[in-house]
Design goal:
The complex is a heterodimer of chains A (about 160) and B (about 110).
Chain A: H1 2-19, H2 24-43, H3 59-83, E1 92-97, H4 103-115, E2 119-125, E3 128-133, H5 136-143, H6 146-155
Antiparallel strand pairs in A: 1-3, 2-3
Helix pairs in contact in A: 1-2, 4-6
Chain B: H1 2-29, H2 33-59, H3 63-92
Helix pairs in contact in B: 1-2, 2-3
The chains are: A mainly alpha (about 160), B mainly alpha (about 110).
């Protein structure tokens, strides 16, 4: 129930920000759209801890800047590799452990790795990620496990949910 | 003040455009399929983000800026998903990755 209410608030807020209109007719149609969207989501049974993970609290607001900074650094590394005439790539496959307890945590880790240029997640199996790394430096950054620790922290206590 | 914001905005726009071009160059230069996806990542992440933030500075404190920020957020959710779908399909079909053993290649 909490998740349904939260989702309604998010949808209403999103609708308001996208439209920016406050005429009664448009507000009514917005409310109707939110109601229909909530009904469909409830019918499809997708209102759960994966679509509305409020247990994460404010931690994403700390994780996001760190991730964006990592992405910026990796971008400059890959850009330098591309622009170096000898194209110094050392592609390799590496397996790393994902210490997250929930599927949501593993998805966040896998997507964060893919989002970072120089590393792409190929496969997720039994708490192990198969990652393609462009250079030795990319692979070493991954094997240090820093991102894994960050996502495990982001996931929180991870009680059964 | 306006001139300063304008200058920052243009720096971001030009930087983003250069990053996108670098990503495009990388797509052509990389040796195999998996390596090419890394080059595409440049255009997806830093290129798009820098351009969108440059546009936010142009739009100022308006609803347009909110939409641009939502766009940046959505891009950061959808682009890794699309990239993962591509490489996962290639990997499942048995496309081998060119691997360079540690110590080979040019180190730096």
């Amino acid at each position: 129930m909490t998740r349904t209410i939260l989702l309604s608030v998010w949808l209403a807020l999103t609708w308001l920000l996208w439209s920016g209109r406050t005429e009664p007719l448009l507000l009514a149609s917005g409310a109707l759209s939110v109601a229909v969207a909530i009904f469909l989501a409830w019918r499809m049974n997708v209102i759960d801890a994966e679509s509305e993970p409020y247990e994460l609290g404010a931690r994403p607001l700390v994780y996001l800047p760190w991730l964006l900074w990592e992405i910026a650094k990796a971008n400059l590394h890959v850009a330098r590799v591309i622009l170096t005439p000898s194209l110094p790539v050392q592609p390799r496959l590496v397996r790393i452990r994902a210490t997250q307890k929930t599927d949501l945590g593993r998805v966040i880790l896998a997507n964060s790795i893919t989002l970072t240029p120089g590393t792409v997640t190929l496969d997720v199996r039994d708490g192990t990620l198969l990652v393609h790394a462009l250079t030795r430096k990319s692979a070493e950054g991954l094997e240090s496990g820093e991102m894994d620790r960050w996502v495990t922290w982001l996931e929180g206590s991870g009680e059964d949910r | 003040m306006t001139a300063l914001v304008d200058a920052a905005s243009w720096v971001l726009l030009v930087f983003g455009a250069l990053t996108c071009v670098t990503g495009g160059v990388g797509l052509h230069r990389m040796p195999d399929f998996y390596s090419r996806t890394h080059a595409g990542g440049l255009t997806d992440t830093l290129g798009a983000t820098a351009i969108l933030f440059g546009l936010v500075l142009q739009a100022g404190l308006t609803l347009v800026s909110v939409k641009l920020l939502m766009l940046a957020f959505l891009l950061h959710l959808t682009s890794p998903t699309a990239t993962h779908a591509l490489v996962k399909a290639a990997y499942s079909r048995g496309l081998k990755a060119n691997e360079v053993e540690a110590g080979d290649g040019v180190s730096h």
